[in-house]
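Morning F.,

Quick status update on the modeling queue. The single chain you submitted on Monday has been processed. Sequence for confirmation:
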Amino acid sequence: MTPSVATSSPALQPATQVALVDALVEQGWYVGRGVIDLGLCDALNNELLHRAAYNGLDEAGIGRGQQHLLRKDIRGDAIHWLDRESAAQRRYLDAMSELQQALNHALFLGLFEYEAHFAHYPPGAFYQRHLDSFRGRANRVISTVSYLTPDWPSDGGGEMVIYHPDAPNQEVARVVPEAGTFACFLSETIPHEVLPTRCPRTSIAGWFRRNASLGGVLDPAR
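Structure tokens below.
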């Protein structure tokens, strides 16, 4: 049974929006600790771990459509796309919808959709350095990562490394995957990677998307 989710506190701290927008404008990325409500993180984490225990996740790949490949040498997580099936998912996605409106109001980005999936990294898994947008296609505009694992140990590994957009070998931030931390960055320009984890690592990866088309056909979300 999915645990109930208290709603007395906001899912996303309101003060985050101003700091987040300023950081995106100034440097193209934002990281904040204690941004996501810990009760919500706990409910989402329990849901993800339940799926992992009962084979309710899919191996993640790279590319999509006919170009979709399973490459454990590049990416080792397993995923499940959020579909609003639980109260925790609905609360999280509603918070992202509010953030989408704030981003459009402040930055005139024309974001029209948000897609997200659970991500479970077993010990030893990683994700090599990459960009989130598809080459030549600006459909994914802003990437988000919400971390769910409580009490992350100092030697747990699994950090997300963010690199400078104009100097891809220059590390500018290293994000510890502890519950409540929220990161976002420009999908087309900010290289990043997930270092090998020594503990099971849980998170939600998401993307705010702008409408794109090819040959008159709308670009699908996935």
